[in-house]
Amino acid sequence: MTSKRLLEQPRAGDSTREPVTGKAMHEGAFRNFGKEISPNGHYFTSTREMHYIHKKFACGREEDEQSSGGVLKYGCTAHHLILSGIRLQDQTHPEALSPVREPGHLLPSPVTPHPHASSIIPVPHDRRPSGHADKEVMAATVLTTLSTSPLVLNPSSSASDLASKGWKESLSASYSSSTSGNWSWDASDQSVPSTPSPPLSNDAGKSFLLSSQSDDNNEDTESTHFLFEDPIPRKRKNSMKVMFKCLWKNCEKVLSTSSGIQRHIRTVHLGRNGDSDYSDGEEDFYYSEIEVNMDTLSEGLSNLTPTSPTTSGPAPVFPVLTGDVSRSEPARMIHTPLSQSAPSALCHIRTDHAYQATTPVSIPSMPSEPPHSEDRISVSWQSPPVIYKGLPGPMTQIRTVSIGEKRQPVNHTTVSKAHTNNTSASKATTGTRKPRGEAKKCRKVYGMEKRDLWCTACRWKKACQRFTD
DNA sequence: ACTGCCGGGAA
DNA sequence: TTCCCGGCAGT
Ligand SMILES: [Zn+2]
Residue ranges under compositional bias (Polar residues) (predicted)? Predict the structure, then answer.
């Protein structure tokens, strides 16, 4: 065996040299003793130790090199921020469920202001008793929520109150909503084919950005869960935001409150008297409720060519919410996670020692530079799983395939969304053996001697992790 | 011939 | 899990 090694080390063999091997040491034979000085001046005591030393050494260095750690940290932080932003509201109290979607509407009843909810979410103060329609819409929302997930709420809570009330009202009103969704209401058509729940999307909503595709999928799965009556359903996400969109011909107004939209319609389109809260219900026909999924929104953003640094533009047109919105709905909106889309989003994994390190690390696309730590906090909630090196396509030069195969399994943590995105591309890796990166790898760079300088992977004869392509 | 590294195996 | 290597494939 040692002989083998020698083969690999043609010139190293002579005197003392030769990269140590655990075995070699046992064999005693060559290694004079424990001590040695490597060509580059390192001083080793024993084989094992040498490795350790090296390891540490390498770690430090490499981390510096790509400072993957730094970036990761940032990523994580951001991640948490966002998540907690959502999660906090999302779970915690049962009541909190509703508030997420439309705090203003779900807890509107001037009668019972929820202490909890309000403690979590800043309730807009300009909230006024406004028209019934307001409540109706709200009720409908609640209703559907409830209907899809029975038992979610404790019947004794005031929420139920609200719900039942809402129900009644919605009945009296004539939106028909059967338990399994399927709404019919004005212009709304079911642009969401297989979705049982009624995300009131209509053409209007469509224009409201959101490539609803993935969105729908999500929704689909979600509601599926509901149908299965999960005892603790929906603990995640639902960063849904309900908005109201004016359907008037060329009016694209979107407001966050129904009262707002009603007022808008009344005054602007119906030419009614502005200030009065009076509503004859006619406005109802001119606006519709739409749900905006923050998650999807941002996800969509990150999706667009995550790995390609070339696409730098701010990109997607964010629904220009009218000023009104921001006014009546203070800080709450998480809107801006989209500030990301940072070109360098994350392309990930890499850490020397991935064979030792457990978690995937995301790094900025730039090949190897000490990415200054700040480097725009690329928000990457969804962290690891998502993006995966877009197109292994034959071209696109720069990133040749390479990392693909091996890594993929490593990081695909929880999230099950198999990624609709480029399925076709994925196959590429399997068949052929991969183009072979172009960059010089540790082996070449350092040579057989100085093997100890190689990255671990290289030493293991695995794909180099220090010089990826 | 050499390099890169997959797949597999021993410890 | 860590470490190593046979052997294939690209250069
Ligand atoms: Zn390497």
Answer: 411-432
